[in-house]
Design brief:
alpha+beta, Nucleotidyltransferase, domain 5, 28% helix, two-stranded antiparallel ribbon
Length: 337
């Protein structure tokens, strides 16, 4: 397990008791309650003429039985509102497939209760960044909901870094992209992860189910490059066609389908990865399930998102831990009948 004590000390702070608490709805008809990750806005201009045809490259799927595979994902959820703030929850999962096996093991972190108020936000923001990355962050924290998601993003980067440092010759699957250089995701963090991975012979692969990159001529999403094309196959690298701030893109950018009838994904791979890119595509296609998404990433996602019953339990824990009181509903007072 990765040591996260400094992270917990930074985010799991106390707030004054007696505050009112308005819990978020937990729809019991839906088992999983999910908050979509918010990505920093990326440049979307591609120097890519739609009339230029680029051949797709076929992929030969091969299950990486002799390789170690790791997948990392995180989630956050706003449990409820308090005066001038909120109480959120964070959880993370790391899925591991060991060499010579097809079974998986799970490392789960959290859920952690994270109170964020207008009064404590700036201090917690700086303390959390310093605890995870050993540097000062001089930026101003965003609104409370975005701050919670930024804590999740930083925690995810921290787990990615520690996984890259503590494992060797592994295929490490990330949810997202290899793009940095934003206020909430400074370039030095991602560069450090990629450097540590390379030093240990690890291959980093980032997968996105959606992307903001579009084609210059039609303004269609880059995933449309494989419309009507039968997989498994890929197109790219298209990074050389990115005209705005290409230095933010630390990996080569591809569009790929990993199964014959699967969905297209954006896939980022470091240019000088230990495995050739053809071999990377072969291995992740071998891991892909029915819809073309690697089982390890799917398991990481499924085991970190929060269920409805878990959310109700966490709301009760927040009330007890912080001495909160349930906010009285105003509507019955105004409309008693």
């Amino acid at each position: 397990m990765i040591d996260i004590e400094v992270f917990m000390k930074a985010i799991c702070n106390k707030i004054p008791p007696g505050l009112t608490f308005e819990p978020s709805d937990a729809n019991l008809d839906e088992y999983f309650q999910e908050t979509a990750k918010t990505e920093e806005e990326e440049d979307s201009s591609l120097e890519y003429e739609d009339s230029v045809e680029q051949e797709s490259v076929p992929i030969d799927p091969r299950y990486p039985i002799d390789s170690q595979v790791l997948a990392i994902d995180t989630t956050n959820f706003t449990l409820g509102q308090i005066p001038d703030g909120l109480v959120g929850a964070l959880r993370a999962s790391i899925i591991k497939k060991s060499p010579g096996k097809t079974s998986h093991s799970l490392e789960r972190y959290g859920p952690y209760l994270v109170p964020i108020t207008n009064q404590n936000k700036a201090m917690v923001y700086k303390d959390t960044f310093r605890a995870l990355f050993g540097r000062e962050n001089t930026s101003v924290p965003p609104d409370n909901h975005k701050t919670l998601d930024r804590f999740r993003s930083w925690f995810e980067r921290y787990l990615q870094r520690e996984t890259a440092r503590n494992n060797k010759n592994s295929l490490i699957l990330l949810d997202g992209s290899l793009i940095g250089g934003f206020v909430g995701d400074p370039t030095f963090i991602l560069k450090g992860i990629l450097k540590d991975a390379a030093a240990n012979g690890n291959t980093i692969v980032a997968m996105s189910k959606s992307t903001g990159l579009t084609l210059k001529g039609s303004r269609c999403n880059i995933l449309s490059l494989l419309d009507g094309v039968q997989g498994p196959c890929y197109i790219g690298d298209i990074k050389k066609r990115i005209t705005q701030n290409p230095e933010r893109y630390l990996g080569e950018v591809y569009v790929a389908k990993l199964t014959p009838l699967g969905q297209p994904f954006r896939i980022d791979i470091l240019k000088d990865s230990p495995l050739s890119h053809d071999e990377v595509f072969s291995q992740i296609a071998g891991l892909a399930g029915d819809y073309g998404y690697p089982e390890e990433l799917k398991l990481a996602h499924m085991t970190c998102i929060l269920g409805s019953i878990e959310i109700i339990e966490l709301q009760a824990a927040a009330i007890g831990l912080h001495g909160l009181s349930m906010k009285e509903e105003l509507r019955p007072k105004i409309f008693p009948l």
